[in-house]
Amino acid sequence: MITCLGDALYPQVGVAAVKVMEALGVEVDFPPSQVCCGQPAFNSGYREEARAAARAYLKAFAVSEHVVSISGSCAAMVRRHYPVLFEGLTEEAEARALAARTWEFSQFLTDVMDVTELPVRHKARVTFHHSCHTRRLLGVVEQPERLLGMVEGLEYVPLPRAEECCGFGGTFAVKMPVISSSLVDDKVDHVLETGADELLGLDMSCLMNIGGRLSRRGAGVRVRHLAEVLAEGWGR
Amino acid sequence: MRRRSRPPAADTPRARFDAVARATVADRPLHEWLDNYQAVQQGWHRWAHDDLGDAEEWRDAVAAVRRHTLAHLDRYLAEFAANVERAGGHVFFAADAEEAREYVADVARRKGVRRVVKAKSMVSEEIGLDAALAATGAEVTETDLGAYIAQLAGERPYHITGPAVHMRLPRIREILSRAAGEDLPEEPDALAASARRTLRDRFLTADLGVSGANFGVASTGTVVLVTNEGNGRMTTTLPPTHVVVMGMERLVPDWRSLEPLLVMLPRAGTGERLTTYVSAITGPRREGDADGPEELHVVIVDNGRSRILGTKYQAVLQCIRCGSCADFCPVYRTMGGHAYDSVYTGPIGAVLAPLLDGSEGREHLPFASTLCGACDDACPARVPLSDLLLELRADVVAGPSPDANAAPSTVPASGSGSSSAAEPRWWALGFKGFAAVATRRRLWDAALCVASGLRPILRSARGCDPGRCAASRLEPGASGRSRLLRAPGVVRAWTDARDLPLPAPASFARLWRRRPRAGSPASSSPARRGR
């Protein structure tokens, strides 16, 4: 699951995730008909439009054994909201089945692949943003931290008030920009407090928000997906 | 300052909302104050939950009691009312705010009431009771310190359990000094003492006490009050007449089922094990009682609640009014409690205000959330706030429902199908386009192709030269950045504060098609086939 954002704006994240999974011996496929899980429409109240997008997803991943998403909130959309979206409809069973085999990237590595060590070196002072949907809807909290702990040379500095939202919220960011901008400013303050060289995460939408504000404020913090760091430092 | 001129912003609810949010964001000392209040409150909340050890089980127990009560509300209401009357109290079922106001005003007139003391009650705020009592000629005094300060300031409660949580010491000193007619020092103890002197006099001379009810115990007809300041006891024992105003959903079946609620309300609301006072009031004063009112009236208020019962929104009635959803909500902290323009603030307000007060003019409230779920985690009664917000959003977009039961009080602002004040038509069009693209990979590929071709133009519009506009903090509304293009609407809403990422030169799908394949399953390639 490359997600619409990952496809259009951050293809390097998908490439990195594929590289890591293939290095772990996973046979990776990219069903080409996938576009978007429907989350933007669903969260904005457009149920019919969300269902249309979701139907295309059900079709795209019909034969996949596991579906790995490079975005926590898109995985949460499938896991948490697809069963609701198709409740009482003919696709309900299919939606539930897809929900059960859909994983966020770090969750897949730890909970499915049982990764306990990684041949990865990455020398940097790093902090990490736990995206809300990854944390609260998927319950993925310590998995990414476990993976970070496997990386040699990496110094991990926890983000203060890590459980707080960055203010993105999908269309919220442009429907209520004043509130959203103030929230991301708070988040950026906390990122800068850590003195980290890099901010890592599992969801490019939140990272697009925090990164966009960081660069606007002229901060030199690098913002990347965890998969990028794992791929880059693999086998070094 | 440099915002593009728009048609004159009418005094619409949405315009007021924006103005309050903007002002709260711009007020840095207030921002820091609210930030600190939340940090402190969250700390106590966590302490009180860790202290329990098995807080999640207690939350389950609270939710179970609330769900059970709501499922059998008719039965428990009848039982509660019969037991209140058996104990010598009067019960009045008010269908709406007006009936409730009229009943209480009537009691006040009949008893020749001149002074009313009130213990903090959200329902009395909801129904606008103060004004109705004032219209009878009575003087009404709030006796909860925060509510008293808010009343003196002429403000709506900022927070469900902390009506004046936004006010800092200098302002409180000013307000209380004016009320006391003397220049009070800027010391919390002295200010509280002054308020206490004034309030003591009001308690002793009041003819009528008005309180809410945290819970009503059906099996005995008992009203339970959970308070910290002692004003609740004064209000319900000193005046000769006591009127309880309560929402019809406040009931619990019996004392056993009250336990989890009494355990969790203070822990969630104020982060303490127990409040200073837990009062249980069964009927008026009996012979031999040392104190208590001669007359007790219990006004049970519907005012939209029965319309919610039996719908997909029923879970909102599980709320026990602790206010912890607001304590954890980053959006509440950022836009401030007055942005809700309702008695009910925070995430619960964003759900409850449109449902109780009617959605007209409040369509924007369910959208005032990032759906981060912090409120869901904080709620002791497991009200699924994020899910309810999502349902409300879907109702706003769908417009008025022909089936009034499916979506209570969802009324369109403009009456023109799905385009309401909060939902401009172009969003609807945008999502139609979204659905078309999301279901057709070729269309999406074409769009990405166009987007990557626009990179040079977008590059100039995306953001600013960091050196020239690296404001260390955000100035709302200011967009002093150098750019060739003035980005339109939605994009500008983003780029006012943030740089926009550029579309990738090649999408992931394109990279995937180009990758050397080593025995991996052949991916069908429409682009190549096209050539």
Write a compact overview of the structure shown.
By secondary structure, chain A is of the alpha/beta class.
Lay out the secondary structure.
The complex is a heterodimer of chains A (about 240) and B (about 525).
Chain A: H1 4-8, H2 11-23, H3 39-43, H4 47-60, E1 67-69, H5 72-85, H6 92-100, E2 102-104, H7 105-112, E3 121-129, H8 132-137, H9 143-149, E4 152-156, H10 172-175, H11 177-194, E5 198-201, H12 204-216, E6 222-225, H13 226-232
Parallel strand pairs in A: 1-2, 3-4, 3-5, 5-6
Chain B: H1 13-26, H2 28-52, H3 55-71, H4 73-86, E1 90-94, H5 97-110, E2 115-118, H6 122-126, H7 129-135, E3 139-142, H8 145-153, H9 169-180, H10 188-205, E4 208-211, E5 215-217, E6 222-227, H11 231-237, E7 241-247, E8 251-252, H12 255-269, E9 277-281, E10 295-301, H13 305-308, H14 324-328, H15 330-335, H16 346-357, H17 374-378, H18 385-398, H19 425-438, H20 441-453, H21 455-461, H22 466-469, H23 489-495, H24 508-514, H25 526-530
Parallel strand pairs in B: 1-10, 2-3, 2-4, 4-7, 5-8, 7-10
Antiparallel strand pairs in B: 5-6, 6-9
Based on the model shown, name its key terms.
heterodimer; A: 236 residues; alpha/beta; Rossmann fold; 2 domains; 4-stranded parallel sheet; globular; B: 531 residues; Fumarate Reductase Iron-sulfur Protein, Chain B, domain 2; 6-stranded parallel sheet; 4-stranded mixed sheet; 10 strands; 49% helix; disordered N terminus
* CATH architecture term of the largest domain in chain B: 3-Layer(aba) Sandwich
Coarse shape of chain A: globular
Distance between the termini of chain B: 53 Å
Structural class of chain A: alpha/beta
CATH fold description of the largest domain in chain B: Rossmann fold
Radius of gyration of chain A: 17 Å
Structurally, the number of domains of chain B stands at 3
Strand tally of chain B, please? 10
Strand content of chain A: 5-15%
